[in-house]
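Protocol step 4 of 5: obtain the predicted structure for the target chain.
Materials: sequence only (see below). No template structures provided, no constraints applied. The aim of this step is simply to have a reference model before the mutagenesis design in step 5. Sequence pasted as it appears in the construct record:
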Amino acid sequence: MEMKKLLFFLFFCNICVVLLRGQGLQPLFTIYREQTVVLNPAMPSTNYLVNELNNTISTTYRYQWLGMEDAPVTQVVNWEWLPTDRNILVGANVVNDKTGKIGLTSANLQFAYKLMMSSMDNRFLSIGFSAGMQQARINIAEDAAEQNVYYPNQRRIVPDLNMGVYYHHDNIFYAGISTPQLLGSVIYSQADNNQRLYSLNKVRHFYAVTGMYIDAPFFGNDGAFLEPTTWIRYIPETKTFSFDVNLRAKISNSFWASAGYNLYSNTLNIETGSILGESIGLDAGHIKIGLGFGVPLGVNKWQGLGGIGEVVVSYSWGN
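Step 4 output (structure tokens):
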């Protein structure tokens, strides 16, 4: 009976991670525009594209299903550098993703090359990849002991590879495609009798993004603009589409706000943020603070599981 209880617990964990987290263990985000390095290694951040700051360090904290115990939590730390004398992008990122007793931590190095397509304006095609290692953790020893079953915590390390292509047309239009978790793999734990008790499938994801910048002088600021974007995610193994539309408004040099909608989860995404630069004595850089919230609408796939909160803080500077 004890083993049956343990197997049920493992099955429940598997359902939580694979079904509820997107069937592939790729972290979800609310503020997509600030997570480009995780989703597409060829895509520079807005700190470079809009503000021409070629160094950025950022951190993200995301809590899904607010108020629910052992809910999904994601943390990201990222570094980005685009040398002024070379057409390359280099960087590194660490992503920690945890749901209940199951955790995934990846560490990747990033490289992208920019093919300049015009000497008159800022048009380029970027091809990039990030590679590293990912550790999976299954921490159920304590729960198993309560059922008088010995089952040690599990840790396994697998390679991680992500690739992407991005096109930028002079701060007017951009588009990109990418494949996180390109290698795919199966992370599993095994009993003493060689029976596989538990497995996590790292499946390939495909992302596509399009967006554009529209001048918005009606906000009363020369640097104001609107940025409509569309993110599409497809998981071939489960034939799952996720479709996000978003409209971000940079109202002034120190404030932005946006609203968006996720068709797959029927969720309204709201975002706001502040840019602190000269007002706090930073002449060659700025600090950006963004807050994002996901609000479930009506009947959706996560019905009753609560909303989403996300915080992004970054510091950018130029050489």
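Step 4 remarks: The first strand starts at residue 55 and ends at 64. Residues 2-317 form a domain with the Porin fold (CATH 2.40.160.40).
Proceed to step 5.
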